[in-house]
Amino acid sequence: MAAPINAYSRRHRTWRRFRTGLAGLLLATLAVSTSAEMLTAAVAANFTGTMEKLIPVFEQNTGHQIRASYGSTGKLYAQIRQGAPFDVFLAADRERPELLEKQELGVAGSRFTYARGRLVLWSRSEDAFQDPEAYLAASTGPRLAIGNPRTAPYGVAAMEVLDALDLKDTVLPRLVRGDSIAQTFQFVATGNAEAGFVALAQLRAWDGASGANWVVPASLHQPIDQQAILLARSKFPEAARAWLEFLGSEEARAIIEKDGYDTGDTPEP
């Protein structure tokens, strides 16, 4: 009778080890699932393509996930002021993140410049302009698209360029304004405007013909410092901080620079 008892005992021990291992596996899985958070990010429209490249890298590195909402910096700022449940804000300027910090809606000390944008005058038509300043100086002609300066920082920069060239009054009748720099780009891409001031990153992401383009000298407008900030209402502040740390990392900077932004003077958070 000893053999059956020993066989039963061995089977019992094997099952107990299996059950213990399975429990450990389930606990480990549960630990991973509870530590991985779903972040919500408010992101300036010009940064859409770059954000879509950064998100999978961050998710693979950390296990956290990000759901991004894109729009004009001004409108996203207004949504945050009204209580929208975002964890982080990636603006296309420094003004709104500074305001959120002063209003205690952004976490003090978390704000930093993650990218510096470049402005481009672009047309799908290669023959649209050879001399960009002469093209802008024309008193009549096709419509010219810019972002709405009230909501789009790239629109502010575009108006500064026209001021610097003393062409604001000349160009004003030809202007058509997009709510965001994304809509501004669409005006040109679809032919609703012959040319427009857009972000260099958008043009690099464009899979159509490059057409005519002029990278505007940075001396003609204030720096387009795009700042990020952790929001005070964040449900997952530690995961949000991990995202901001990643955004300032060398790995992220390489992606950001490849897309047409400058990052040389951007300190890590």
TrEMBL record:
<comment type="similarity">
    <text>Belongs to the bacterial solute-binding protein ModA family.</text>
</comment>
<protein>
    <submittedName>
        <fullName>Molybdate transport system substrate-binding protein</fullName>
    </submittedName>
</protein>
<keyword id="KW-0826">Tungsten</keyword>
<dbReference type="InterPro" id="IPR050682">
    <property type="entry name" value="ModA/WtpA"/>
</dbReference>
<keyword id="KW-0479">Metal-binding</keyword>
<feature type="binding site">
    <location>
        <position position="181"/>
    </location>
    <ligand>
        <name>molybdate</name>
    </ligand>
</feature>
<dbReference type="GO" id="GO:1901359">
    <property type="term" value="F:tungstate binding"/>
</dbReference>
<feature type="binding site">
    <location>
        <position position="73"/>
    </location>
    <ligand>
        <name>molybdate</name>
    </ligand>
</feature>
<dbReference type="InterPro" id="IPR044084">
    <property type="entry name" value="AvModA-like_subst-bd"/>
</dbReference>
<dbReference type="InterPro" id="IPR005950">
    <property type="entry name" value="ModA"/>
</dbReference>
<feature type="signal peptide">
    <location>
        <begin position="1"/>
        <end position="36"/>
    </location>
</feature>
<dbReference type="GO" id="GO:0046872">
    <property type="term" value="F:metal ion binding"/>
</dbReference>
<keyword id="KW-0732">Signal</keyword>
<keyword id="KW-0500">Molybdenum</keyword>
<dbReference type="GO" id="GO:0015689">
    <property type="term" value="P:molybdate ion transport"/>
</dbReference>
<dbReference type="Pfam" id="PF13531">
    <property type="entry name" value="SBP_bac_11"/>
</dbReference>
<comment type="subunit">
    <text>The complex is composed of two ATP-binding proteins (ModC), two transmembrane proteins (ModB) and a solute-binding protein (ModA).</text>
</comment>
<dbReference type="GO" id="GO:0030973">
    <property type="term" value="F:molybdate ion binding"/>
</dbReference>
